[in-house]
Amino acid sequence: xxxxxxxxxxxxxxxxxxxxxxxxxxxxxxxxxxxxxxxxxxxxxxxxxxxxxxxxxxxxxxxxxxxxxxxxxxxxxxxxxxxxxxxxxxxxxxxxxxxxxxxxxxxxxxxxxxxxxxxxxxxxxxxxxxxxxxxxxxxxxxxxxxxxxxxxxxxxxxxxxxxxxxxxxxxxxxxxxxxxxxxxxxxxxxxxxxxxxxxxxxxxxxxxxxxxxxxxxxxxxxxxxxxxxxxxxxxxxxxxxxxxxxxxxxxxxxxxxxxxxxxxxxxxxxxxxxxxxxxxxxxxxxxxxxxxxxxxxxxxxxxxxxxxxxxx
Length: 312
Ligand code: CUA
Prior knowledge:
This protein is an alpha+beta fold.
């Protein structure tokens, strides 16, 4: 039984088809039972309508056959669905031994991925297609949840402990990652994507893991980092206030800090604000930014500074 992609996202992982089969079965059975109950209600409304003043209901005792039937049928259905669901659950929880492992850290409000070679990227997760991938996940602040609808996987990401989830993408392509645990002001902007590549392309990507292309201007690379690193969740570039100060027109502007001191937005201020955001909190803004220490190379930091400079 498969309704294809009629009301579900495309099935892009090996487990997706099985999850949908069970989901569709439960939906279909529920719909049939609902229909049966509604038809019976409507039928009885007319059949037992009061016909005259002294038309009283005779004493209704019980009907053993009926009661056993309406207990047994749902019981068997539930046991059937439980066994089916448990088998799928075990498949989803049992990570294949040859899985490729990637570490994931949820932060307010972006995802950080660390590969075995030490390479780190933010928000966009690159994986090889046709190979089981195991994500070892934790959070550096509050509860987040890693959800890829196309893969039918969802797992809470919890501070202070590791949770894991695995999937295998069938074809190269892109799928959206949502954070699906309410985690604060910019929860809805905590969006990334999985990019599944052919193994050879993935190996190539891993070697360069997300550095600036040779011929790209610094400010342009800075803009790319701005969108791919989750900055846009809190800092606008059009002057509007989200969570943190807007980047627009901020270059060389004066800043008042919560501790009563003041300063000017220059290279060192921006660098410090990225690496150690709690050092200087701009007056009127919440001290919520996660540290990006170790996530950007010096070249990346220069690129972001150049990008902010360009936002007049
Ligand atoms: Cu992270 Cu919602």
